[in-house]
Amino acid sequence: MKAVIVSDFGDPSVLEYTDTEIPEISSRQVLIRVVSTSVNFADIMSRQGRYHSGSKPPFIPGLDAAGVVVKTGAAVCRLKAGQRVMALLKHGTYAEYVAADEDLTFSIPDSVDFETAAACPTVAFASYKLLADVARIRPGETVLIHAAAGGIGTTAIQLARLLGAGKVIGTVGSDRKQLLPQRQAPTRL
Ligand SMILES: NC(=O)c1ccc[n+]([C@@H]2O[C@H](COP(=O)([O-])OP(=O)(O)OC[C@H]3O[C@@H](n4cnc5c(N)ncnc54)[C@H](OP(=O)(O)O)[C@@H]3O)[C@@H](O)[C@H]2O)c1
Questions:
Q1: Which of 152, 159, 171 gets mutated to test ligand 1 (max ligand atoms within 8 A of its CB)?
Q2: pTM of the full structure
Q3: Beta strand segments in the chain, E
């Protein structure tokens, strides 16, 4: 299969587009033909060797995959071949195929396209955990989100609303990153 490989820690020149083996799956994994992946800040830190749980080169970067299940492990019971799914991985999604744990692979509705689904797992799971489990947000509460223009920030704003927040306040590092809400102009602090 084709994949992007981090050959050594460093700047973008260490990324190689090359041929590699299709990964083997264990009994509790599925093989996914990747249609879309995401690019996260964590991918860049991994490439630079600065990510706390990053891999050692050579490795295939990428945490999120959306695609179609092509093979299932013997112990997989919830997913089947042909199903449209998204998955969260430790690395490996800048590739044509990934081996994903069944526990971290989720069916996607027909109404959600692969690009939208691929942009979801890393930022949505982290934002949900932060808001629901760490902050334990209650209906009507005001939420302050720093780095609001980033992947986590833009997702956390939307999830805070869905979880019933009253006012959501975001901070950004420069004028260029100010989001323009439909009903309210941004306030300079
Ligand atoms: N634990 C998890 O599961 C998990 C999952 C996803 C992300 N994360 C972490 O959450 C953080 C945000 O991730 P993200 O995907 O939202 O990243 P992102 O889209 O690249 O946004 C990062 C934001 O951080 C701010 N920032 C401050 N100092 C920075 C620096 N030196 N370089 C780059 N950006 C800087 C910038 O906003 P301003 O300029 O507006 O300040 C930037 O927009 C990262 O630390 C990431 O590793 C953790």
A1: 152
A2: 0.88
A3: 2-6, 15-19, 29-37, 64-72, 84-88, 97-101, 105-107, 143-145, 168-170
